[in-house]
Amino acid sequence: MGWLRGLLMLPLLLMATAPKLDAQAATTDEYVLKAVFLFNFAQFVEWPSQTFSSPDAPIVIGVLGSDPFGPLLDETVRGESVGGRPLTVQRFVRVEEAVDCHVLYISTSESRRLDEIVAHLRGRGILTVSDSERFMVHGVMIRLVTDRNRIRLR
């Protein structure tokens, strides 16, 4: 049911970004879409069972560094579950705090620590996502690219 809501919201959100808007509104729309993408990623990834501390442990979507989403990400996943697991959002200042995370958005504020972050996450069952071009070179799995008012995956 939650995946259906996310899937149905995506076209509406994509249409909302079509007109040119002022910078603040465009940024808000951009991060609404990116929040929906993070939610959808959680629905289409299968983690090994040992990734979770218990059978009912939540799927954690984390934000490492400066949080560009504000309440948008929390609102997107509130009340949702995937495979019987609730979705939660956590924010992290240090990569060491993200060990129980499943989808990790790495903010561009973390560019100076990127090598340390990637090294710490290596071998863990964490899907890494960012919107910084530099991060792809260093091993971030999915890059969200804003191109002509559309969000694309790289």
Helices, strands, pairings?
Elements: H1 2-16, H2 23-44, E1 59-64, H3 72-77, E2 81-82, E3 85-92, E4 103-106, H4 114-121, E5 127-130, H5 133-137, E6 142-147, E7 150-153
Report on this model:
This protein has 154 residues and is of the alpha/beta class. 36% of the residues lie in helices and 22% in strands. It has a seven-stranded mixed sheet.
Low-confidence stretches: 1-25
Structural class: alpha/beta
Q: Could you tell me the strand content as a percent range?
A: 15-25%
The number of helical runs is 5
Strand tally is: 7
How are the strands of the largest sheet arranged? 2-3-1-4-5-6-7
Proportion in helices: 25-40%
Overall pLDDT metric: 82
Distance between the termini: 27 Å
Given the C-alpha coordinates, what overall shape results? globular
Give the SSE order as H and E letters.
Answer: HHEHEEEHEHEE
Main sheet record: 7 strands, mixed
Radius of gyration: 15 Å
Please outline what is shown here.
The protein has 154 residues and is an alpha/beta fold. 36% of the residues lie in helices and 22% in strands. The chain contains five helices and seven strands.
